[in-house]
Amino acid sequence: MIARGVMLGPDQPVILHMLDIPPAAEALNGVKMELVDAAFPLLKGVVATTDAVEACTGVNVAVMVGGFPRKEGMERKDVMSKNVSIYKSQASALEKHAAANCKVLVVANPANTNALILKEFAPSIPEKNITCLTRLDHNRALGQISERLSIQVSDIKNVIIWGNHSSSQYPDVNHATVKTPAGEKPVRELVKDDTWLNAEFIKTVQQRGAAIIKARKLSSALSAASSACDHIRDWVLGTPEGTWVSMGVYSDGSYNVPAGLIYSFPVTCQNGEWKIVQGLSIDEFSRKKLDLTADELSEEKALAYSCLS
Prior knowledge:
- It is a single chain.
- The protein has helices at about 25-35, 50-55, 75-95, 110-120, 135-150, 185-190, 195-205, 210-215, 220-235, 285-309; strands at about 15-20, 45-50, 60-65, 105, 130, 155, 160, 170, 175-180, 185, 245-250, 260-270, 275.
- The N and C termini lie far apart (about 40 Å).
- It has 10 helices and 13 strands.
- By secondary structure, it is of the alpha/beta class.
């Protein structure tokens, strides 16, 4: 997708730096061979390496898909300590060797907290340049509404994912609208089923990752890659007028979310910068959901910091 221009636009040449662990070096080289064989016009070079310094040197965009997955019988703290050490070393390589205004997107779970660790250990990278992926959840929410109403997904806009990229996230349609022949209409008005929107819809989006694993016996691949491209594309090239997207970004205290967490907010992007959408009304139901996912992120943060000591 990146080599085809999906991430940075159809006119932007790219050089891909791919990093993997030494046991995967041969397979990584196979990926490089295929990229060469596809003869992508925009692809101006491929670096395939197991050396973080070589991988990070001069990069303008870093998509961090590597992490330690939770295995059966592992405690959350064990997973967290593995990821803390991974993101600590990635952070120092990025800080020392990436391009000055490098944009970082963390995909590997726990994505929000991995991004926070990366921020801690790369203090010279501006906090606005470190984000995590909740666009996959955002796109999942759009997909569910599209299926429910039997409409084009491109006619729906302004759903929101609040909080953590976990099952505590809050998919919110209170401000979402649909383009109809009679003009824009609120999603709630068209769905006409608050029970579904406040329960099953939320649960489906929250649990979608697990449902994909159950069906495929592997975690989301295509949809995650596509969402990562969407995230970077909108961040770099801007969001359409009147439309916002969901990004995990460093909280400044907006919507009474504790500052210092990486939390998913509705954002607009312009000139390569994101901005949290302000002034949206939050009802009592939503407030509880926003606080619940913030509490989970505060706990994760404390757990991650305890792994540092």
